[in-house]
């Protein structure tokens, strides 16, 4: 896989997960990515150019808000591109998050389980199912 010319935002309050995300995104040669441990800072960044961000990866459980609140907040920024929810959460929570995202006008929301694998991230960024 060559360079990936997409702007990616990754949100997770867990330092280890962010470090793994950084390593994977660097290994995948993602040309531009921004890591946030605070969802409110990430939303402020996205709001500046919602159409310029191609993919948002976010943990489902964050201290400032959960996935449902994040989806609502993202919809207010104008972001409607690919949303990937990262979680070790149960299937019920994943289903609720996906239904909410669709209700707010997002396309199919992708899910990425923890622990995540390099190949899964690559497939999501390439537009394939993980």
TrEMBL record:
Recorded superkingdom: Bacteria
Record keywords, A-Z: Phosphoprotein
GO biological process terms held by the UniProt record: phosphorelay signal transduction system
Segments forming domain Response regulatory: 7-129
UniProt entry tagged with the keyword Kinase: no
Pfam families named in the record: Response_reg (PF00072)
Modification sites for 4-aspartylphosphate: 59
SUPFAM superfamilies registered for this protein in UniProt: CheY-like
Protein name per UniProt: Putative response regulator receiver modulated diguanylate phosphodiesterase
